């Protein structure tokens, strides 16, 4: 066994709703801890899967996901050979680490951010260099990140909007930063929540692919498309880098149901726009509420809100006892709440206000 593996702690997924109900003796639970889509899945996906042809279940799926690949390439206006699919972005992150990292290499990540970047780097024996975000704004500290670059740096991770803070980094700022990064270092931009960004004509860093060969853009169908259960993610990067990744990609990694669901979901952009609009309204209400009760939060452009509160574990327990499961433990005194539907949000806000003795 690798010595690096012995020192690591495995990723602990969310407990199932039934497990939480049983553990806390609850008849109702609203899981708002995993940034899942509160508005479900496109009805067109449901219809397509109800009519799915299971007569070919004894055959392997399309190992190249050709139909889905063509749809994604057309929608994003990229070359098909620049796309690598994975079983969610978790698999993509593992591929990137496996291909581009060796023992002794270094990876730069903001702190806090998605934990899988760190875990997969450490699996490969790489050293993780963490750079704290600006505590006032939640923005990345690009200047400090640049000072941490050494001859051993291989990857810089950018989650945009960032998980768990929800803070969005303007593309212009990313471009200025990448111009100062040596071209032999990969800058990987995780846009899992990009569809939730509002107020911008173009939120994605996708145009940077035409300017930089050392940039990769990651996307998922788990969030805005509401297909977390189907595990479909992908990365777009230069054809040469994509070719390297394809050499380690497991054959037939996306089953036919997942490919079909993702393709139909991609076609239904009206559903995505509805989700974006509904989420934005509720997100604004959350930020107005947090400001009113005096809790520090970061301005979110995602489908979750991140804030700080004294004795956050007690508040999380209070919410859970009322049927609301939220994410705790990311930082001391912090909580992350997936933005739910209007009624659930109001109930949670009333519980928080009561906890803080800030009821109107």
TrEMBL record:
Cofactor(s) the protein requires to work: pyridoxal 5'-phosphate
Quaternary state and interactors: Homodimer.
UniProt domain Aminotransferase class I/classII large: residue ranges: 31-346
Protein name as it appears in the record: Histidinol-phosphate aminotransferase
PANTHER family: HISTIDINOL-PHOSPHATE AMINOTRANSFERASE, HISTIDINOL-PHOSPHATE AMINOTRANSFERASE 2
The keyword Amino-acid biosynthesis belongs to this UniProt entry's keyword annotation: yes
InterPro entries in the cross-refs: Aminotransferase_I/II_large, HisP_aminotrans, HistidinolP_aminotransfase, PyrdxlP-dep_Trfase, PyrdxlP-dep_Trfase_major, PyrdxlP-dep_Trfase_small
Single annotated GO MF: histidinol-phosphate transaminase activity
Source organism of this protein record: Limosilactobacillus reuteri
Modification N6-(pyridoxal phosphate)lysine, positions: 223
Keyword field: Amino-acid biosynthesis, Aminotransferase, Histidine biosynthesis, Pyridoxal phosphate, Transferase
Coiled coil start-end: none
Entries under SUPFAM superfamilies matching the protein: PLP-dependent transferases
Pathway, per record: Amino-acid biosynthesis; L-histidine biosynthesis; L-histidine from 5-phospho-alpha-D-ribose 1-diphosphate: step 7/9
Family: Belongs to the class-II pyridoxal-phosphate-dependent aminotransferase family. Histidinol-phosphate aminotransferase subfamily.
Enzyme's top EC category: transferase
One GO-annotated biological process of the protein: L-histidine biosynthetic process
CDD domains linked to this entry: AAT_like
Reaction equation(s) it catalyzes: L-histidinol phosphate + 2-oxoglutarate = 3-(imidazol-4-yl)-2-oxopropyl phosphate + L-glutamate
EC number of the protein: 2.6.1.9
Pfam families from the UniProt entry: Aminotran_1_2 (PF00155)
């Amino acid at each position: 066994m690798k010595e690096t593996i012995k020192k690591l702690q495995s990723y602990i997924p969310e407990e199932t709703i039934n497990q939480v109900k049983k553990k806390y003796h609850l008849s109702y639970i609203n899981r708002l801890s995993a940034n899942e889509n509160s508005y479900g899945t496109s009805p067109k996906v449901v219809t397509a899967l109800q009519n799915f042809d299971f007569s070919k279940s004894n055959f392997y799926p399309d190992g190249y996901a050709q139909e889905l690949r063509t749809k994604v390439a057309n929608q994003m206006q990229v070359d098909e050979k620049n796309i690598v699919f994975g079983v969610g972005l978790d698999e993509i992150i593992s591929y990137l680490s496996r291909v581009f990292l060796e023992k002794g290499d270094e990876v730069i990540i903001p702190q806090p951010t998605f934990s899988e970047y760190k875990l997969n780097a450490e699996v490969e024996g790489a050293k993780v260099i963490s750079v704290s975000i600006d505590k006032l704004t939640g923005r990345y500290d690009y200047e400090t990140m640049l000072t941490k670059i050494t001859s051993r740096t291989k990857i810089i991770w950018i989650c945009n909007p960032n998980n768990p803070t929800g803070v969005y980094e303007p593309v212009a700022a990313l471009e200025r930063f990448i111009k100062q990064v040596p071209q032999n270092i990969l800058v990987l931009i995780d846009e899992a929540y990009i569809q939730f960004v509002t107020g911008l004509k173009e939120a994605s860093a996708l145009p940077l692919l035409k300017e930089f060969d050392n940039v990769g853009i990651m996307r998922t169908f788990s969030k805005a498309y509401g297909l977390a259960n189907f595990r479909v993610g992908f990365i777009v990067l230069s054809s040469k880098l994509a070719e390297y990744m394809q050499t380690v990609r497991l054959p037939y990694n996306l089953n036919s149901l997942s490919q079909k669901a993702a393709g139909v979901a991609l076609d239904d952009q009206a559903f995505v726009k509805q989700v974006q609009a509904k989420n934005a309204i509720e997100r604004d209400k959350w930020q107005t509420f947090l400001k009113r009760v005096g809790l520090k939060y970061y301005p979110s452009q995602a489908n979750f809100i991140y804030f700080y509160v004294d004795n956050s574990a007690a508040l999380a327990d209070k919410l859970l006892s009322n049927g609301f499961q939220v994410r705790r433990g990311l930082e001391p005194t912090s909580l992350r709440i997936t933005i739910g539907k209007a009624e659930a949000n109001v109930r949670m806000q009333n519980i928080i206000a009561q906890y803080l003795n800030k009821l109107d």
